[in-house]
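Reviewer 2 asked us to include a model.

Predict the structure of this chain.
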Amino acid sequence: MDKTLRTAATGLNAQQKYVEIIANNISNVNTTGFKKVRPEFQDLLYETLRPAGAVSQVGVEPLNEVQIGSGTELVQTTKIYSQGDITQTNNPLDLAINGDGFFVIRKPDNTLTYTRDGTFRLDNQGHIVNAQGYKLEPGFTVPQDTTEVQVSRDGYVEVLLQGSTQPQTLGQLELARFINPGGLKALGDNLYAETSASGQAMMENPGNNNTGEILQSHLESSNVDIVEEMVNMISAQRAYELNSKSVQTADNILSTAVNLKR
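Predicted model (structure tokens):
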């Protein structure tokens, strides 16, 4: 019965983590650019009680193996980078990517991070920064006498200066693309870091190689489907209850064995 308890415990632990992942998805249903997480489980090692090919008597065909599993475990979590809904905000520094690319953000220690959150603003020096004050790459400095900022679909940033009728081009935004975006490491603050699993960032002009176009005055919503997550939570809760029932059953059997009288 020890094996039953240990096996059921792995199921309880796995379903607990599943519920935690679902809770995180639901809590970020209104987080700009958030990508939902999908857990992946696998079964554990098997104990072989009888190897394949064993026979019980002469002339009987070989039998299949007799194996007993040891439960389950969470092996990885995968970010699902499906496109979220794009909504209009009328804020000229709100940018959305309609495609697979990522904005490039430079942190104060000069490391590069990546995000789908296009909520940008200007700091006191005219730099385009995110909510944490980290600069959008490549860095632009918007003049103080700017009356309008324009960002084209292919990433060109232009400003209209006071008293001028012709826009001035500051430069072109580049987007990062990864061969395996699911391998990016989530850092919090809507930022991701490159890993060996994701591969190196490939810098592209917006619109090239499925990187996606930039939509000014728009933001990408979370891709969490609240109905799907609620169904998953109910399923995880029922699985947890069944695993706890296995623990209870094993405990009852152990109790019966302990209380046996000659």
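The chain has a mean pLDDT of 89. The helical segments are 2-27, 226-258. We have added this to the supplementary material.
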